[in-house]
Amino acid sequence: MRARALVGKAEKAAAASLNTYMDQNKKTILKSFSPVKILLPVLLGLAATAWLFIRDNKLDDLKGISEAHWGWLLAAVVVLIIRDAGYMYRIRHLTNKFLTWRNSIDVIMLWEFASAVTPSVVGGTTVATIILNKEGIPLGKSLAYVMFTAVLDNMFFILAAPIALLLTQGQVFPTFGLDASDVAKLQSAFYISYSLIAVYTFAMIYALFIKPRAFKWLLLKITSWRLLRKWRVSAFQHGNEIIWASEQLKGNTFGYWAKAILSTIFVWSARYFLLNCLIAAFVDVSLSEHLLIISRNLIFWIVMLIAITPGGAGIVEMAFPSFFGLFLGSFSSIVVVLYRLITYYPYLLLGSFFLPKWIAKVFGHHPKESEVPV
After folding, report:
1. Is residue 69 part of a domain?
2. How many domains does the chain have?
3. What contacts 312, CB < 8 A, 6 or more positions away?
4. Which residue range(s) make up the domain with 232?
5. How far apart (Å, rounded) are the C-alpha atoms in residues 33 and 353?
6. Among candidates 211, 214, 213, 231, which has minimal Cα distance to 223?
7. How far, in Å, CA of 123 to CA of 102, rounded?
8. Residue 370 has pLDDT above 50, yes or no
9. 324 vs 290: CA distance, rounded Å
10. Are 208 and 155 in contact (CB under 8 A)?
11. Tens of pLDDT along 238-259?
């Protein structure tokens, strides 16, 4: 009788913890999509773009858009659509087709929107978990899918970056318009970012697929130190999240993992090739240069992951000419504007369009299954 009472108390405490978690999530998603957070990256990006043109008196260079090869520009848009379709396929596959294609569109558009209004180093993963949960996927599974997606994306970087360094024989780091000290700083930024990604990813792999409970114990052990004690509650919650997520990922077939990996390779390859299309629209690009552009884009992306501005706004525009100015010359400023117009600003607009309808659809909606912390 006493044991049954204790179990009942534990279940009530767990349910209360979950309700508190969901209330916090509602506040998080509304705060993440506030008008100020949408306006800030737009202003930063526009300011950086304007500065690029004004600094070098290149306002007349905007006329160069008339020289573009429109076939390549169309190809860039097609690649973007294919890439987003790949993201939709991947999230639908990861959820074992629980999400319909229509729901997958909502999820990806809002996920991209969240990534556009949060710093690159933070990304939209927290909001993505809430989005999936509000689509009717239980919290544990939502966490599992988002964490697994992060692992897949990061593993692509971890494996592709050394290949890019090897194939380009050092040319992957830009020297255009940079002195030796700037190149050294850029290389340091890359290696720091790469190391942080690798450490985080392998820790997540260990936590999700090998010893989730040991990982929770380690978090609690670390936060038992006096200087870190104020984070102990957060560590406990995060440890529970890891255990929930790990439980949901067990028992999947080889086909499940293979399709997840292949779709990840597909979407990131498309993401990188889009820039190749834009550059080829203005200048002739050889096969070896195409490979170098993809390699530099990979390094560029990894360095940008530590950007502190929403969606890397401002930082991407400023760093772009150093990475790709060698190929573009006077067209560099035009291409960075087009690149951001195609790959960044549309998601701010689309997110603003999808968000009100999505909130109307899911407001007050609860997951179809109940889960309590382990």
Report:
1. no
2. 1
3. 119, 120, 304
4. 15-59+90-362
5. 12
6. 231
7. 23
8. no
9. 11
10. no
11. 788 888 888 888 888 999 999 9
